[in-house]
Specification:
The protein is an all-alpha fold. It is built from 20 helices and no strands. It is globular and about 65 Å long.
Amino acid sequence: MLRSLFTISGLTLVSRILGMVRDMMVSHYLGTGAAADAWVAAFRFPNLFRRVFGEGAFNSAFVPMYSRRLEEQGDEGADRFGSKTLSLMFVILAGIFVLAFIFMGPITKVMAMGFDAERYALAVDLSRITVVYLVFVCLMAAFSGILNSRRSFAPPAIAYIMLNVVFIAGLTLVATRIGHAEYVLSWCVAIAGVIQLGIVIVAARRNGAKLRPMKPRIDGDMKQLGLLMVPGLVSAGIQQLNLIVGQSVASFQEGAQMLIYNADRVNQLPLGIIGIAFSVVLLPEISRHLRGGRETLARRSMAQGIEFSLLISLPAMVALIVIPEAIINGLFRSGQFNAEDVHQTGLALMAFAIGSPAYILIRVLQPGYFAREDTKTPMRFTIITAITNIVLCVPLFLLMRHVGCALATSIAGWVNVILLTVGLRKLGFIEMSKGFTSRTARMVLSSALMGAALWGIGEFAEPWLFAEGRLVRIVSVLAVSGAGFVIYLVLILVTRVTSVAELKAKFRRAPKPVTPPES
């Protein structure tokens, strides 16, 4: 499981690095003006739909059902189910695309209530270009679920890398010549969708998945999938409503869309590298163990996921709180993105970082429910989380402006973690290894000591971290971050959170079972 995790994490790291390069270029060309706000709004809609329909509700229902058929009926039964699902899914997505294209004006009004006439008109134009991406990316999510169920994790991760490659190519080759970077970016979204879908289709074929178009029908399998998806749709939809509420409230502050977007992108690095990787690996892993009657192994996988996610997310949270402005300055200060934008984005990053471990843990804990084909319980918890966020967002915005929106999101995330954990404990599904509490305390201590050292290094390196040359700033941020990583690694070894031998053992291939000789 951990080897699969690191396959995805390594490729996700490449994607996130390219994503940072993309965001640096976008900030350079657009700054925090009207075009930047409009572009963020246009890109948000298909992304939101991907998270609600594609990766959220759909995969949480589809992957356990497809995995069960692989376990019980073999490739043929699983692929027949996959073909029926994809055919019906395409028809539904095509209809949604047409409706969204026609009614994009009202949709944009809801998602960006504070936009003036100029930003609103531009956001509608850009959204009508980007909206086609929802068809491609949701189909890609379905093919990714099929590949993940077959333990093929690399192709979907590579497909996500291509999105950033297309963005960077578009800005470098086209925007530098014709300008209008916001329109170039929007067309890049549509082009990338075609390329990404092509990658996972080819990969599915190479992995032996025999999928073919079929006449869309709503039979027993599709009804069961739909029933399982309903709570997931509500849950994922409410989760995204959290973001919409925060972004809509923030839209009353000009430029806040880009400030929050850039802060969230940096904060998403640990979530993308570890949290999403765990959710991708754990769901089919736990599903297979439960279907095979191996509940002890399923609980062990969950326990490993919780402990390892804390090992990574706690130091990441501390680092983002200790040197947020240095990180933002190194990555984004350029062109239209000035020193004040850096300061305001750094404040938002600190607020987001408080919830960073929570959103990684959510990705680890939810498969414990989804693998049992229980999508209703996470839905109820998400509703409570959303109410928490909505109640906090407006007063915190009035008190702290855009930083308040980020803080409300973090608090809501921790509420969700508490609810998910209590629920799994009642099911007897969380069974942590001996010494978990002691190791966690030592992780916290190591993270705090690393943070203190990182602050001192940041103070010493300030002339380079805030230098005029962008390359100097980027190299300085990487050097300081690398120093923090090394310090944390030494600290967790010194405090015996883990050992070199234990780390090696986790990634060593298990020996093949030896068949005993016949007597």
